């Protein structure tokens, strides 16, 4: 755990990107569905340099053409929100995009749709997915993103099909670092801070070079400002990833995201889902299974994803599990800031480059704690 002692918080350049949108955002969320639709229509009429939302507004017809009428052969994903299709937008040089069509009966409604549009229209970072545009024609709610060639992190961690190569240790650490940088941007550079609230493997998308980008901001919440320590809100998110204090009280802070990061990072190290009913009862919940093992360094190697086949730096494993353990602390105030997590992961990646891959060879040295 002492690994964090060497991690210094770095001062961040603040940006005023969200300041002008906060009042609008709160006003929109309090409107009736009819009022929300009217707002979007007004934004469409003023989008040529005057409106707040800068993303392109597409007609439903244009997106039908792009996806060949949302043909099943173009479907690349599906969730509670609806389906995602691959398409090409003729008006943008035949640009390849991912088109998310919200299910009218799904979990995401007008509020989540507006949150996504507002946040991704004002926040831009290399580790946040780029919102190309949206459609709010009639009762249609459609979001258009940049296309991410390697799908989600979840696709590369669990139930891999025969012949699919698992992620190596270095790629996992780089993905973790990039995802943490996305959270750091939301927490430290957005003013006011944004709490992501739905950090999980399926929401981390990967480009052709496996660079990660956070997606799906429908549950994102503006963080506390001034003297406030938290925001109180209805408990939302995915079971297993939610921080315990948020799940029990509804009090949300940026450290709630840090806990969720710890869960996903543990998934990346172990290759296990956070909840897996196919395992024995004592191993169904990843965090409950892992916490006792994290207190015993002799057990660390037993936690590693078998698909890695021993190809990982021993010191890197110890430090990675130390980071995960810090993020998963029950006391939210004891968890590190995401900026410290980023610094730790940067050091971890750098050390990986220096030592390269190495297989653990002597269990006796581990038992003596020589790799701690």
UniProtKB/TrEMBL annotation:
Annotated catalysed reactions: L-seryl-[protein] + ATP = O-phospho-L-seryl-[protein] + ADP + H(+); L-threonyl-[protein] + ATP = O-phospho-L-threonyl-[protein] + ADP + H(+)
GO cellular component term of the entry, any: plasma membrane
Principal place of residence: membrane
Segments forming domain Protein kinase: 70-348
Membrane-crossing segments per the record: none
Places the protein is found: Cell membrane
Keywords: ATP-binding, Cell membrane, Kinase, Lipoprotein, Membrane, Nucleotide-binding, Palmitate, Receptor, Serine/threonine-protein kinase, Transferase
PROSITE patterns per UniProt: PROTEIN_KINASE_ATP (PS00107), PROTEIN_KINASE_DOM (PS50011), PROTEIN_KINASE_ST (PS00108)
InterPro entries: Kinase-like_dom_sf, Prot_kinase_dom, Protein_kinase_ATP_BS, Ser/Thr_kinase_AS
Topology within the bilayer: Lipid-anchor
Sequence positions that bind ATP: 101
Entry's Gene Ontology molecular function annotations: ATP binding; protein kinase activity; protein serine/threonine kinase activity
Signal peptide start and end residues: none
Enzyme Commission number: 2.7.11.1
Stated family: Belongs to the protein kinase superfamily. Ser/Thr protein kinase family.
Stated name of the protein: non-specific serine/threonine protein kinase
Species this chain originates from: Medicago truncatula
Gene this protein is translated from: 11437067
